Please model this.
Amino acid sequence: MFALSAAAGIQTSFTPLIAHAAQANSTRLSNNSNTNGMHLILLGTAGGPTPKKNRAAPSQVIMIDGEAFVIDCGNGVAQQFVKAGLKLSSLRHIFITHHHSDHNADYGNLILLAWAADLNHRVDTYGPKPLVRMTKLFLQMNAYDIHTRIQDEGRASLANMIYPHQIDTDGVVYNNGRTKVSCARVVHPPVNPSFAYRFDHQGKSIVISGDTTYSKNLVKLAQEADILVHEVMHVQALDKLLASEVQATRLKDHLFASHSNFEQVGRVATEAKVKKLVLSHFVPGGDTSISDQDWIEGVRPYFAGEIIIARDLMDLQP
Model:
């Protein structure tokens, strides 16, 4: 059932998860308010798995000619998708950077809820192992609901619509002649592999860092990108937040080894010569005492270009 695809490092299924699937509808969608060109919507901008009052869990969607390319699926992504004014039926592709719960918790839910909202075409998903197993187990867990809706509502088989592709190395993971998606391993121990993604469309480019500390691979991937969305960590605020934690030293060691401080973010953006740097996946993500200016001033000594502080549902064009 599984074999290597033409793109290096992609473990893919040439048939959907249930055998004898019908060929998926290949017609492009054009049902969003902004159907032309390429734009980025930041669905969730907090870092970490704990729900925050002021920011949703990590996720972003790149809309390209009316088709949705979702990167990461933190908790509540489907609701954020709808709040952004998008139709769930526009979902075409999902890219998971790595398997931490703040990035994949609603991977299956997004597809299931889109299907309940009349999704009727193929959805290709990409990410590290065990993406295929996760997909199968999610369908098994929700088999009763899915079966009931197929019988009572006349819906097509959900399993026949999902095509998971497992990534294990850098390179091009998707290319339809108009849009190319490339990935590169980044540094997020102990999670390995963890990927960043680059989206190129008609001369414009958007890069999503995923979770990482300083990464030369990311610098290479993001060369001269129009937009780089990069995670960021406020070390001083973290020190203050963790002062009373029993496991403070252990947690800080993990965060500093696997996330990016101001200098590291600025170095990547400067060395990659990006046009716009969008700070997102804020750590700590729920601290309202940190102003936008605080984040900007932290990175400014290391990057002279445009810095944008991400907000949930912010819409940006490259």
